[in-house]
């Protein structure tokens, strides 16, 4: 009916055609027929244009409803749900506004993780080539001066001329605006981090380096950097006048992963650690930086360490020392450490395969030729339990009941058929909270959330793809540990921190 309204002026033309055979057309009829033909062409073009416009608008609406997170504009909202069947990977804000990373079964490439939109830094940076060339020789000269000293309290300032050049360039406005490498885009960090953890992480990652100091004690000597000084610091903080961080070797990246695993499992026994780049150290490569705790370095180092042989350690486990706050007998052989602390240490060390505490002689696995225990001949002592020392056991000087996990050198390249089960020997209970995380199958999700905060570490491990490979190792060991728990009837108990 709609098209017939446009065709009624052309009825005379149709009438002429019907009478075409009876008589020839006049000049007037030819003019009228031509006008009608032009009119029909015009109407047809208008109808086609309107139909094409409606189709384009329909396609636009469809695309607007089906576009994903990668096409979000700054004012767009993040979707509240995830399509698990299609394997889409989004960051979903939860009740605590924490950036969560969901999983997909098969990843052909790292997921695009996005929690907010940063402003682009368009300010050009002027490079100081003279400073770079000056530091190379200075770093070489400084490293030759690293030598152990007789007391941990002996410290000296390390003269990094390049450090002063950096400070000068910052004052002259030549350095680019600083963007924190700790990525907390929501109002709160993940719930396993305390406010003190977040403060320490931000300091370690972003603090302006005021001074580099070398502190000797054990081998190798500690290299610390100092931030802004504090007004009230005790005498035992003489080495570090303010907040400080211990700079470790770039190859010891397990220290950062260990910190996040410790917090996710609810053990809370490691010191905060982040990955950071120093232009004046290690050719600018990222290296772990651990929070400095002066209570672990008192004037008398013996007061903050536990000295036990393997035999004494096993006997103390049977005594269940300090459990329920019951003081052990003087001849029980108990140390100052609470019984539950050994269970936390054993679980933590097994997942990361850290053997330099409970098994520094490598008695529980097949070591490689380059391992320290092989080079020093410690494996020869494995048959004599009373001569094997339990090492690197630390507690704070004012808190002798709780352990502090330091020097967390783990191994991700150890297969499941060569795990060190000696670390679990004598353990009859394990922390319930940590085991529940392993059983919940949410360990990967929580570790991804946690490690994503440290951008420097995340990128140094190859992004999402590299982090997933590390978590794969921990998940496989967690399955082995759960099987071990069921096979040996190990109980899980609530262990108060």
Automatic annotation (TrEMBL):
GO terms for cellular component: Golgi apparatus. The keyword Membrane applies. InterPro entries: FAM198 (IPR029207). Its main location: membrane. Residues 57-74 have a biased composition (Basic and acidic residues). Residues 50-78, 123-145 are annotated as: Disordered. Keywords: Golgi apparatus, Membrane. It is found in: Endomembrane system; Golgi apparatus. The keyword Zinc does not apply. Pfam families: FAM198. Belongs to the GASK family. PANTHER family: GOLGI-ASSOCIATED KINASE 1B (PTHR15905:SF1), GOLGI-ASSOCIATED KINASE 1B-RELATED (PTHR15905). This is Golgi associated kinase 1B. It comes from Channa striata (Snakehead murrel). The lineage of its organism: Eukaryota, Metazoa, Chordata, Craniata, Vertebrata.
């Amino acid at each position: 009916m709609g098209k017939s309204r446009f065709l009624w002026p052309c009825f005379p033309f149709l009438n002429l055609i019907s009478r075409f055979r009876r008589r020839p057309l006049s000049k007037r009829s030819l003019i009228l027929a031509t006008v009608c033909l032009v009119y029909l062409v015009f109407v047809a073009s208008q109808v086609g244009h309107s139909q094409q416009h409606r189709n384009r608008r329909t396609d636009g609406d469809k695309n607007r409803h089906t576009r994903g997170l990668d096409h979000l504009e700054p004012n767009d909202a993040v979707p509240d749900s995830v399509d698990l069947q299609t394997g889409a990977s989004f960051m979903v804000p939860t009740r605590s506004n924490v950036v969560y990373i969901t999983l997909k079964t098969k990843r052909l490439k790292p997921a695009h993780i996005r929690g907010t939109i940063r402003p682009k830094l368009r300010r050009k940076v002027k490079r100081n080539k003279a400073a770079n060339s000056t530091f190379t020789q200075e770093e070489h000269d400084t490293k030759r001066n690293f030598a152990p000293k007789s007391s941990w309290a002996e410290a000296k300032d390390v003269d990094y001329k390049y450090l002063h050049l950096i400070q000068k360039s910052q004052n002259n406005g030549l350095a680019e605006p600083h963007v924190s490498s700790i990525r907390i885009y929501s109002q709160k960090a993940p719930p396993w981090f305390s406010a003190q953890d977040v403060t320490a992480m931000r300091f370690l990652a972003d603090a302006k380096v005021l001074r580099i100091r070398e502190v000797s004690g054990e081998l190798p000597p500690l290299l610390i950097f100092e931030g802004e000084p504090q007004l009230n610091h005790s005498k035992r903080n003489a080495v570090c006048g303010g907040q400080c961080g211990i700079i470790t070797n770039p190859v010891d990246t397990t220290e950062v992963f260990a910190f996040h695993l410790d917090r996710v499992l609810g053990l809370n026994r490691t010191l905060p650690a982040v990955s950071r780049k120093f232009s004046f150290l290690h050719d600018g490569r990222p290296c772990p930086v651990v929070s400095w705790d002066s209570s672990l370095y008192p004037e008398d180092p013996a007061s903050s360490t536990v000295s036990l042989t393997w035999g004494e350690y096993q006997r103390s486990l049977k005594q269940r020392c300090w459990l329920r706050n019951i003081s052990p007998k003087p001849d029980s052989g108990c140390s100052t450490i609470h019984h539950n602390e050994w269970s936390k240490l054993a679980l933590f060390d097994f997942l990361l395969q850290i053997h330099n505490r409970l098994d520094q002689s490598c008695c529980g696995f097949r070591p490689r030729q380059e391992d320290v225990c092989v080079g020093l001949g410690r494996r020869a002592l494995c048959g004599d339990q009373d001569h094997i020392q339990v090492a690197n056991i630390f507690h704070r000087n004012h808190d002798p009941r709780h352990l502090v996990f330091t020097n967390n050198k783990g191994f991700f390249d150890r297969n499941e058929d060569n795990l060190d089960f000696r670390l679990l020997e004598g353990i009859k209970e394990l922390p319930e909270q940590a085991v529940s995380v392993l059983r919940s199958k949410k360990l990967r999700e929580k570790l991804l959330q946690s490690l994503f905060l440290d951008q420097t570490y995340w990128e140094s491990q190859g992004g999402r793809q590299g982090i997933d490979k590390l978590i794969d190792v921990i998940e496989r060991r967690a399955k082995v540990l759960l099987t071990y728990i069921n096979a040996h009837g190990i109980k899980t108990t609530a262990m108060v921190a």
